[in-house]
Amino acid sequence: MKARAAVAWAPRQPLSIEEIDVEGPKEGEVLLKVVASGVCHTDAFTLSGEDPEGAFPCVLGHEGGCEVVECGPGVKGLKPGDHVIPLYIPECGECEYCRSPKTNLCQSIAATVWTGYMPDHTRRFSHKGKPIYHYMGCSTFSEYTVVPEIALAKVNPAAPLDKVCLLGCGITTGIGAVRNTAQVEPGSSVAVFGLGGIGLSVIQGAVMAQADRIIAVDVNPDKFEMARALGATDCVNPAELGTTVTEAIVEMTGGGVDYSFECIGNVEVMREALECCHMGWGVSTIIGVAGAGQEIHTRPFQLVTGRTWKGSAFGGVKGRSQLPDYVEQYLNGRIEIDRLVTHTLPLEEINTAFDLMHAGKSIRSVIIF
Ligand code: NAD
Ligand code: AHE
Ligand code: ZN
Ligand code: ZN
């Protein structure tokens, strides 16, 4: 079938709206109508050319709110009309990762998901006969996409897809990192570095976890109003400090925070986020994604003296079994999404969504098809 899609032909080029061909679903696959898609910084990261796994041309996008159009052979749990959120980390339910309660990193189709192919090593997208890569197994910047059933969370059809699409990445990642990865306890102190869709969702998660003090850090002070509205108790602009952020936070908290989260993708900030944690027990969780060749550094002494460095992908959430409940929590008013959608744009204006992100003028833009 034909579909309107935003194609990334090459790194660092604006996306181009094209009519592409989408092949029907094969064994275990599902054809989806994408109703809405968020734009995450990771889409911009891959488009920047810094992603070692970035393959071009591709259809980016991984925060989708979708309707099932057609099920391929062998699909058992879905039918046309169902509402689903595509998962860049699937849940096959059978691999050793799915069987472990310690991780959400299902590896059943990881080799193809991260290299731009469907599980059978072929692609469903083409333009004038030229194949186009998939992205993170989702490719939600297309009116129609094809996703394996094991990478689809079936959600309550009462939920507005132009909002819960953000549970496909940003909001779930932030909240899940607090709950599942760091396991923040009531009364804790928390520092959040970077106040985009991820960092603001970490703040939401910290409030849910009943943290006492939530220190929000960003170089863009325009982000502070939303951070405070969601529950930040202190806002810090590194540019306004006479010291390093680490020193400032250690000073503010009388020794460092119990938990910190890096939500930027800056390896220097990752170090600060670790080092502003309390000696003896502080835990720092890396969420941000950094470019090819970049590495984190600290003195081993920081870890020897009881700080822990962790990382979190999709907030440690097992998508098919746990994401539907995030949608219910949104519907029950326990998870905030609406205020994080600062812009809603038609597909034709998708490059504006990237411009707004880079200019620090949006939290999340949602593309409507
Ligand atoms: P975003 O662009 O919306 O927000 C990033 C924020 O960081 C901005 O407010 C920006 O002003 C701030 N910032 C930039 N440099 C800073 C600095 N030196 N100090 C303080 N603040 C700074 O991005 P986002 O969509 O929220 O994503 C954040 C990061 O998380 C990205 O690296 C993204 O790729 C990554 N991510 C990871 C996962 C995961 O599963 N691990 C999921 C989603 C996104
Ligand atoms: N391709 C990058 C890594 C990108 C990355 O870490 N992706 C996160 C999700 S970001 C969502 O916005 C993830 O879940 N990764 C799990 C995995 O298995 O890659 C690189 O550096 O190679
Ligand atoms: Zn994302
Ligand atoms: Zn699995």
Characterize the structure shown.
Helix 5 crosses helix 6. The protein is built from twelve helices and 17 strands. Helix 9 (267-275) links the parallel strand 13 (259-262) and strand 14. It is globular. The chain has two domains: 2-168 and 337-368, Medium-chain alcohol dehydrogenases, catalytic domain (Quinone Oxidoreductase, Chain A, domain 1), CATH 3.90.180; 171-313, 3-Layer(aba) Sandwich (Rossmann fold). Strands 3, 4, 5, 8, 9, 16 and 17 form a seven-stranded mixed β-sheet that branches. Strands 12-11-10-13-14-15 form a six-stranded parallel β-sheet, with helices on both faces. A four-stranded antiparallel β-sheet has the order 1-2-6-7, with no helix packed on it. It is an alpha/beta fold and 369 residues long.
